[in-house]
Every structure is written in C-alpha cells, then in structure tokens.
Design brief:
It is a single chain. The chain has 16 helices and 17 strands. The protein is an alpha+beta fold. It folds into 3 domains: 146 residues, Beta-Lactamase, CATH 3.30.450; 91 residues, Beta-Lactamase (2-Layer Sandwich), CATH 3.30.450; 155 residues, Heat Shock Protein 90. Strand 14 and strand 15 form a beta hairpin. Helix 9 runs antiparallel to helix 10, helix 10 packs parallel to helix 16 and helix 11 packs across helix 13. The longest helix has 53 residues. The protein binds adenosine-5'-diphosphate. The site of adenosine-5'-diphosphate has 23 residues, from helix 13 and helix 16. Adenosine-5'-diphosphate (ADP) binds next to helix 13 and helix 16.
C-alpha cells in the first residue's frame, strides 16, 4: 500500500511538472516568436526604405548583422542576396511571404530554408517599383534558448525530483502509519481514520464473535476429552481418508500403540492386515468388526462409517477389551463339552448293562455285580449333577446370600463325622484340632469347601494314612488347613488342579468316584466369601490345602 501511494504521488508530481513545463514552454515560445517577428518586420521596413532611397548601393554597402537580405524583382527573379549568388537562385515569386508582399504590400512566413539549412522567420515588403525586399532571420525556439540553461535546469530538476521523492516517501508512510498501527485483535476506532470506523466497528464485533466461538469450541473439546478419557473402551474418530481427528488414551492403550501425533493416519495404530481391512471397509461405507488377539488379550474393534450427503465423511472406531468375555466363552465351551463327556461315560455303561440284562445274556451269578456297577455309575451321575449344580450356582453369582454365623470348628467336626465310614474303609485316620472360630458366611458353601477338601484328603490317601483338619484364627482371617499323608500332587499339576475337570490321574480319580469339579467348587466357594485357597504338596508325602477367609468384611 505504501508503495502504491508512493508511486501515485511520484506519478502525479511528475505529470504536474511535465505539464507545467510544456505549458510554460508553449506560452514562452509563442511570445518569443511574436517578439522576433515584430523585430524582423521593423528591420525589414528600415532596409526596404534604405533600398527605396539609395537603390542597390544600400544593399552592397550595408552591414545587416546576422540577417539574410534578399531583393526580388517584380517578376520574382532574385536581384541580390546576402547569402548566395543571385544568378544561381531560382525564382522567388512563389515564396509564401513574397507572394503576400506582391499582392498586399507585405508578408511573412516561418519556413525551413534549404539554403541556410535551418528554420527561418521571413518578412517581405514591396517597394514602390514593385520589387520586394525580404529579410530572414534564423528562428530560435524557446527550447533552443533553454538549451543554454540545460545544466542548471537539470540540476534544479534533479533537486526537485529528490525533494519530491523524499516528500513522497514521508507522505506515503505518514498516510499508511495509522492503518499499520491498527491492532486487528483490538481495533481502536478513535486512533485511526474516520473513514475506517465502520470497518473497524465490524472487525471488533467479528473479533468478539470469533473469540466467543473459539471459547465454546474449546469448552466442548475439553468436555469431549474428559468424557472420552474416562472411558475404559477405546474411541477413535478419523476423517474419510483415515487421518485421526480424536483418539482417547484407551484406544492407544488397547491397541498397544503410542498416542498418535496430530493428524496421523489411523493405520499407524496397528499394522495388522485384519485391522487395515476392517478400517478400509468402514471407509468404504461398510460397518466392520474384528477381534485382535495379541499377548493373550482379545480386543474387539468395531469400525462404523459416518455418512453425510456427500458419502462417507469419516469413521468412528470403538475398541473393547473382550479378553474376559472370550476366556469365559472358551471356558463355557470347554465346560459344556466336558460335562457332555462326563455324563456320557456312566450313561453308556448303564445303557450297556441294562441292554444285556434285558436280553437275558447276563448269567444269574453276574446280575449282582452288574447291578452294583449300575448303582455306582448312577451314583457318579448324581455326584456329577450335584457338583455341576453347586458350581453353576456359585458361578452365576445368583446364590442368594443367606449368611449366618457359622462355627467353623463345629462344621469341620460334622464333615469329619460324615466321612468317618469311608475313612475307616480306607484305613485313614481323621483328626481335628484348633479353635471354635466364628465366621459369617453361607453354611452350605462353607460345608462344601471343607467337605471337598477332606473328601480328597481321604480319597487320595494311602492305607494307614492320616488327615488333619485345623481351624484357627489369624489376624482378620479365619484359617482352615487340611493336610494329608497321601499321594501328593506333582508340582506341574499344582497350578491346574483348581480348573474344572482337571485331574492329575483321570482314571484313578474316576475309579474312586471323583468328578474333577471338587476343587473348582472349593475355589468358587472361597471366592464367594472373598477368601483365598492355596495348595502345597510333596509327591509321595502328602498335601496341605489352606483356606483363608476374611473375618472383617471387605469395604
Ligand atoms: P476329583 O473329583 O477328581 O477329586 P477335584 O477337583 O477335587 O476332582 O481334584 C482335582 C484333582 O486334584 C484330583 O483329580 C486329584 O488328582 C488332585 N487332588 C485333589 N486333592 C488331592 C489331594 N489331597 N491329594 C492328592 N491329589 C489331590
């Protein structure tokens, strides 16, 4: 802008100077020429009267300075000329000034003369004998006159140009300064040109509106961020080309990636081909899902397209940790298949024996043995179903809490009493020590815990072995330990014995009536009471199972 104003000032100044110079030159040259013509006429009159009185002698003797004098006869022939030999000169009757003098008595002209090779002012005057005296003087224009002063003139012009340049710079800067000084964020109307005030008022209003909108945007972004950051699920919002617009920390955590940089591609969060295809499907307008399994963790990725009038404008991606769900699903599937298998085995035996009995192919002396087998298989089925029912009750968390104060010592004593006959049959000695510890919990579940531990301690014992049950009280906890002198459990199996249907020796367990669910029921029963259970064992020497139940309710 400064440049434009500067150039305009310079151009206007230059045009004004040029016009003034042209005008003055024009006026000057006009008056200069008029002066010269008048002077030439006066001189012409004097010379004409001289010739009139003295004839050609006047011309021969006269000194006319720089003037050219020509005498032309009435017929147009040149009689005398101060510059050229008259005999070599052509007729002058048709010269403009001469022709005028012949007809009116005098005439003048301005013409380029080939003889003197310059522009000349001519004046002609008719004499009484009809001849004509013509005087000519070289015509000097104003510019010719000015050429003498060209040097000082140029200097004056250069000085004027420098001055106007300086003036133009200062002026243009001064004009622009108030505009440059405007603070566009806080325009001050009073400090600037009045003409700018409507613009500045509008700017100020727009600034306020923009600031309000920015603040609203910031607040809603903050709110969005607080909400999405508190989510345990991952959330990614990306543009139509996959550039990330928002990504909560849950998303990068679940995908095992670093928090993405602003505008980074969504594909940088996971390099797997499945993830890429899922996102590309969403970008193509199709909702897509997948399960990403890494390091034993399962993440469900749901990518949905966000469609506008112009097609897919972006995508929304949800990431959910489904590890537990997947594990439960696997467990459920395994459990169902295990249960079917466990139920099928005794039922097949029962079916086979009853078929034989029905067809009368069993000898009378074997009937009792087969009957006993049916009975024991049926007993196994009942135990299995009872265990499944107990477990599913604990599993579903649907067990109505009927907590009561239970004396764990008395409960253990009752269990030992129930196991007395089977222990005697195996020649295993059962003993109980400890204190009367009162614990508030489910009597049925606590009974199942102690029963399963003691039953196993007898079942997996050796003839002449011992089982010791101890009930004690440790700070904030009730502790029940069941130790036996049985077969023990190999270290490799110790971690797995609490899994459903896990048995160290499958055939042995089945033979002695095990279902593979006893320790699972113990684990869930203990968990139901917020406690812990652990097993220690030395193969060939025996095992110790320790249950600890918190007596102070957990907050
Ligand atoms: P089961 O009905 O087969 O006894 P459990 O869940 O009660 O099933 O026990 C799982 C497995 O752990 C058993 O099959 C057995 O191999 C082992 N086990 C449990 N208790 C003992 C113990 N006291 N001594 C040795 N092995 C045991």
């Amino acid at each position: 802008m400064t440049k434009k104003i500067f150039l305009s000032i310079i151009l206007i100044s230059a045009a004004a100077v040029a016009m003034t110079v042209a005008l003055i030159t024009g006026l000057l040259s006009r008056s200069y020429r008029e002066q010269a013509e008048l002077q030439l006429r006066d001189e012409g009159i004097v010379i004409a009267s001289g010739v009139e009185m003295n004839g050609g002698r006047f011309l021969d003797e006269g000194d006319f300075g720089g003037l050219r004098v020509t005498w032309i006869s009435s017929g147009g022939r040149v009689i005398f000329d101060t510059e050229k030999d008259p005999s070599a000169m052509e007729s002058h009757s048709q010269r403009e000034e001469v022709r005028a003098a012949f007809s009116t008595g005098e005439g003048s002209s301005v013409r380029y003369s080939d003889t003197v090779r310059s522009t000349a002012l001519n004046y002609a005057r008719r004499l009484s004998d009809g001849s004509v005296i013509r005087v000519s003087a070289e015509h000097f224009s104003v510019s010719d006159g000015l050429s003498v002063f060209i040097r000082p003139l140029m200097m004056i012009l250069a000085a004027a140009a420098a001055l106007s340049l300086l003036g133009a710079i200062t002026l243009s800067k001064r004009i622009v300064k108030p505009i440059n000084d405007i603070d566009l964020d806080r325009p001050d109307i009073s400090g600037s040109y009045r003409e700018l005030s409507p613009l500045l008022t509008k700017l100020s209003a727009q600034n306020k509106r923009a600031a309000r909108q920015v603040e609203e945007l910031r607040r809603s972004r903050e709110q969005f961020s607080i909400i999405t950051e508190s989510m345990s699920e991952g959330l990614i919002i990306a543009g139509a080309k996959g550039n990330i617009l928002a990504c909560n920390s849950g998303a990068s955590r679940l995908l095992g990636a670093e928090p993405p940089a602003d505008g980074a591609s969504i594909f940088t969060l996971n390099s797997s081909e499945h993830f890429r295809r899922c996102i590309q499907d969403a970008m193509g307008g199709k909702r897509s899902e997948l399960i990403l399994s890494t390091d034993g963790c399962d993440r469900q990725v749901i990518a949905s397209p966000a469609s506008g009038v112009t097609g897919v404008t972006g995508i929304v991606v949800f990431i959910i940790d489904v590890t537990e769900r997947q594990q439960l699903e696997t467990l459920r599937r395994e459990f169902t298949s295990n249960v079917s298998h466990e139920l099928k085995t005794p039922l097949t035996t029962i079916y086979g024996i009853s078929d034989m009995l029905e067809n009368g192919i069993v000898r009378q002396e074997d009937v009792e043995r087969f009957g006993g087998q049916i009975r024991s298989e049926a007993q196994r089925l009942i135990s299995l179903i009872n265990d499944i029912v107990s477990l599913s009750k604990l599993d579903e968390d649907s067990l109505p809490r009927q907590d009561e104060e239970v004396d764990l010592y008395d409960l253990a004593k009752a269990v030992i009493l129930r196991l007395k006959s089977s222990a005697e049959a195996k020649q295993v000695e059962l003993s109980l020590t400890g204190d009367h510890v009162l614990f508030t919990g489910s009597r049925t579940v606590l009974d199942e815990i102690i029963m399963n531990l003691c039953d196993n301690a007898v079942k997996y014992n050796v003839s002449g072995g011992r089982v010791e049950v101890k009930v004690s009280h440790i700070p904030t906890k009730a502790r029940i330990t069941v130790s036996d002198t049985g077969t023990g459990i190999p270290p490799g199996d110790l971690d797995r014995i609490f899994e459903r249907f896990y048995r160290v020796d499958k055939s042995r367990s089945r033979k002695i009536g095990g279902t593979g669910l006893g320790l699972s029921i113990v684990k869930h029963g203990v968990m139901y009471h917020g406690g812990t259970v652990r097993a220690e064992s030395v193969p060939g020497k025996g095992s110790i199972f320790t249950v600890e139940l918190p007596t102070v309710p957990k907050k």
